[in-house]
From TrEMBL:
Belongs to the SmpB family. Pfam families: SmpB (PF01668). InterPro entries: SmpB, SsrA-bd_prot, SsrA-bd_prot_CS. The keyword Cell division does not apply. Required for rescue of stalled ribosomes mediated by trans-translation. Binds to transfer-messenger RNA (tmRNA), required for stable association of tmRNA with ribosomes. tmRNA and SmpB together mimic tRNA shape, replacing the anticodon stem-loop with SmpB. tmRNA is encoded by the ssrA gene; the 2 termini fold to resemble tRNA(Ala) and it encodes a 'tag peptide', a short internal open reading frame. During trans-translation Ala-aminoacylated tmRNA acts like a tRNA, entering the A-site of stalled ribosomes, displacing the stalled mRNA. It is found in: Cytoplasm. PROSITE patterns: SSRP (PS01317). This is SsrA-binding protein. Keywords: Cytoplasm, RNA-binding. PANTHER family: SSRA-BINDING PROTEIN, TMRNA-BINDING COMPONENT OF TRANS-TRANSLATION TAGGING COMPLEX.
Length: 161
């Protein structure tokens, strides 16, 4: 019986901080056997990963999947370029959006969905430093408001600075 659900292997938390996500896509990843075995152990890193569109195909570059410890001479190269599997219309849409200006393809997470390895790919635009500061300030303000609501609900209302 196949396993059901979604099991996250790796996430790129830095991507949401450095980029403004425009749209997300789910793509399959073409892998070899020892890569899948290494991923089942939860070993992968999306830190330097990015995607490119070359000759009508989408490629994932910089993804680090360490060699499988029990592998033999058939083991894989840890940072090899891997093909992403998308529908033709999705690829054409991505080609148009990345060419028209400033957008890039960033992997957000790598996970198992119904036994298959999938990559959540984001069409994103880079944030500037002041955008990042605004996001941090907004997050802090929201956190303070939630704390105040929590205190009021518990009957311990204090003055908010």
């Amino acid at each position: 019986m196949k396993e059901q659900g979604r099991k996250v292997i790796a996430q790129n938390r830095r991507a949401r901080h450095d980029y403004a996500v425009i749209d997300t896509y789910e793509a399959g990843v073409a892998l070899v056997g020892t890569e899948v075995k290494s991923l089942r152990l939860g070993r992968a890193s999306l830190v330097d990963a990015y995607a490119t569109v070359d000759d009508g195909e989408v490629w994932l570059r910089g993804l680090h999947i360490p060699e499988y410890t029990h592998g033999s001479w058939t083991n894989h190269e840890p940072r090899r370029t891997r093909k992403l599997l998308l529908h033709r219309k999705e690829i054409e849409r991505l080609i148009g959006k990345t060419r028209e200006g400033g957008a890039t393809l960033v992997p957000l997470s790598l996970y198992f969905a119904n036994g298959k390895v999938k990559c959540e790919l984001a069409l994103a635009r880079g944030k500037r430093t002041f955008d990042k500061r605004q996001d941090l300030a907004r997050r802090d303000a929201d956190r303070d408001v939630q704390r105040a609501f929590g205190r009021a609900a518990k009957g311990r209302m204090r003055e908010v600075r």
